[in-house]
Amino acid sequence: MRIRTGFGYDSHRLVTGRPFLLGGIEVPHDKGGMGHSDADVLLHAITDALLGAVALGDIGLHFPDTDPAWKDADSRKLLRHVVELLREKGWTVGNMDCTVVLEQPKLRPHVDAMRSSIAALLDVEVDAVSVKASTNEKMGFVGREEGVVAYAVVLVKEESAGP
Ligand code: MG
Question: Is the pTM of this model over 0.85?
Answer without folding.
Answer: yes
